[in-house]
């Protein structure tokens, strides 16, 4: 039976980011980290029109700069220079600009496969090892850690187990960690779009009576579409032929990017706000979508998880204790409590506010958008939230 100091269950973007944030300090301390992941990372990045992507906030860029990987990530990171927020059929709009905020970009859109490749290649195999493809089927708490049973019946013991295996974590359920689940009664339709006109780094957030949509700039003048609709309507849209789908999307979005010429593969995801009722136990931490899964329209989910991962790494490395000490994990949880509460609340309230078709609510949000464009302090606050800096007074 082998033993490591930290076992990270889930080697996706959150798990790999945590390993990267830990590895320099872990090497100095002689710690060993194991990443356990069911899907083998690709050895070479392959371009794909249909690649899924993530919106990285400006705050995420700062974290990856600190970890020494931003220069590589930035080779295929499309900067968001402006954000255009509108309510379909209403008079008000709001515009956020990187220039006004004094930053090179409000955020960046990066293909997940490229981001993952950059992270995996930066890991030091003297500190971070892989069990891949492999899956943890059972977790048993021990006096000084956890015993993990893998799907090949081998076992591994660790001082600290980090659960980062996604929003449908079976291990979270196995451990008896409860969740708060608030369905939005919507599904997100995700696809890549090519417009006839250059996007010039403009991101669009457009709210309609049928649900919000976002178009985010990608390399090669593609745009990442996130379109939320009621469940049956989302299924109808996903089943349309390409021409009919583009025609319906054009009618809702308009012609700010000219004619929408091409759409890639469409994917549907049911949406809910999911929060784990516990994020730390002795020798256990829960990260990523296993800890909190947010509505994608505000683009805050991965960025919050990345801040969590960096904060957990800092807490572990700033302590003289071995990984898994409950007091250290509790201190991490307290440090992130406000960031999580504000980010989850911001994402949830924006989603619910703009999902309502009630006349008074509609009037209120239009006045709010108008005020956002006219009142610099309100606009500054909103921009900092969008950039992932809302709870960081030092930036």
Automatic annotation (TrEMBL):
GO terms for biological process: ubiquinone biosynthetic process. Its cofactor is FAD. Pathway: Cofactor biosynthesis; ubiquinone biosynthesis. One of its GO terms (molecular function) is 2-octaprenyl-6-methoxyphenol hydroxylase activity. Gene3D superfamilies: FAD/NAD(P)-binding domain. Its EC number is 1.14.13.-. Pfam families: FAD_binding_3. The keyword Phosphoprotein does not apply. It is an enzyme of class 1 (oxidoreductase). InterPro entries: FAD-bd, FAD/NAD-bd_sf, UbiH, UbiH/COQ6, UbiH/COQ6_monooxygenase. Residues 5-337 form the FAD-binding domain. Keywords: FAD, Flavoprotein, Monooxygenase, Oxidoreductase. Belongs to the UbiH/COQ6 family. PANTHER family: 2-OCTAPRENYL-6-METHOXYPHENOL HYDROXYLASE, UBIQUINONE BIOSYNTHESIS MONOOXYGENASE COQ6, MITOCHONDRIAL. NCBIfam families: PRK05732.1 (NF004356), Ubi-OHases (TIGR01988), UbiH (TIGR01984). This is 2-octaprenyl-6-methoxyphenyl hydroxylase. It comes from Pseudomonas bijieensis. The lineage of its organism: Bacteria, Pseudomonadati, Pseudomonadota, Gammaproteobacteria, Pseudomonadales. The gene is ubiH.
């Amino acid at each position: 039976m082998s033993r490591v100091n930290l076992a990270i269950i889930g080697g996706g973007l959150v798990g790999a980011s945590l390993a990267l944030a830990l590895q320099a300090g872990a090497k100095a301390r002689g710690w060993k980290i194991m990443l356990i992941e069911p899907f083998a990372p690709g050895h070479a990045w392959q371009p794909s029109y249909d690649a899924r992507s993530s919106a990285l906030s400006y705050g995420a860029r700062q974290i990856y700069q600190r970890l020494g990987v931003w220069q590589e990530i930035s080779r295929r990171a499309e900067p968001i220079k402006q954000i255009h927020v509108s309510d379909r059929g209403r008079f008000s709009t709001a515009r956020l600009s990187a220039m006004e905020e004094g930053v090179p970009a409000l955020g960046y859109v990066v293909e997940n496969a490229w981001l993952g490749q950059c992270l995996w290649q930066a890991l030091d195999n003297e500190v971070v090892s892989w069990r891949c493809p492999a899956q943890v089927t059972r977790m048993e708490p021990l006096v000084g850690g956890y015993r993990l049973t893998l799907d090949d019946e081998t076992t591994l013991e660790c001082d600290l187990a980090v659960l980062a295996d996604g929003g449908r974590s079976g291990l979270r359920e196995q451990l008896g960690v409860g969740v708060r689940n608030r369905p939005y009664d919507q599904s997100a339709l995700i696809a890549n779009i090519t417009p006839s006109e250059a996007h010039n780094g403009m991101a669009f957030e457009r709210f309609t009576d049928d649900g919000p949509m976002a178009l985010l700039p990608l390399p090669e003048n593609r745009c990442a579409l996130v379109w939320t609709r009621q469940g049956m309507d989302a299924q109808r849209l996903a089943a349309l032929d390409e021409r009919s789908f583009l025609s319906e999307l054009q009618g809702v979005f308009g012609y700010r990017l000219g004619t929408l010429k091409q759409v890639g593969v469409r994917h549907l995801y049911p949406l809910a706000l999911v929060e784990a009722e516990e994020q730390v136990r002795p020798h256990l931490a829960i990260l990523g979508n296993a800890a909190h899964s947010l509505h994608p329209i505000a683009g805050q989910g991965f960025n919050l998880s990345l801040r969590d991962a960096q904060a957990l790494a800092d807490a572990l490395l700033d302590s003289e204790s071995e990984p898994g000490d409950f007091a250290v994990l509790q201190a991490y949880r307290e440090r992130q409590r406000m960031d999580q509460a504000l980010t989850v609340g911001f994402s949830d309230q924006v989603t619910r506010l703009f999902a309502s078709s009630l006349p008074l609510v509609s009037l209120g949000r239009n006045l709010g958008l108008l005020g956002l464009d006219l009142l610099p302090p309100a606009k500054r606050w909103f921009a900092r939230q969008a950039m992932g800096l809302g709870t960081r007074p030092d930036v």
